Amino acid sequence: MKSYSDLQEDLEQRRKELQSKQKKQIEDRKKKAISYRDVVAGNMDKEKKKQEKIRNQEAERKQALRAREAMKQELKREIESEKN
What we know:
By secondary structure, the chain is mainly alpha-helical. It is built from one helix and no strands. The longest helix is centred in the middle third of the chain and has 80 residues, at 4-83. The radius of gyration is 36 Å and the shape is rod-shaped.
């Protein structure tokens, strides 16, 4: 049979082990939360870049259409001037 002081020491040891285990769990959760935030932020950055690329492509397409239309108008003017 263990003495009272031995039982107290065992209890104190178990408390310390439990506290260290809880601290470790908290740290692990913090790391997971940070990594999750990093993932979400990274995904948002990727989406922003994707949207910006789409906008740029659309702007280039519109600019090309305007240039083609201007070229058509210029050709029409040249043809009209040649007729006259």
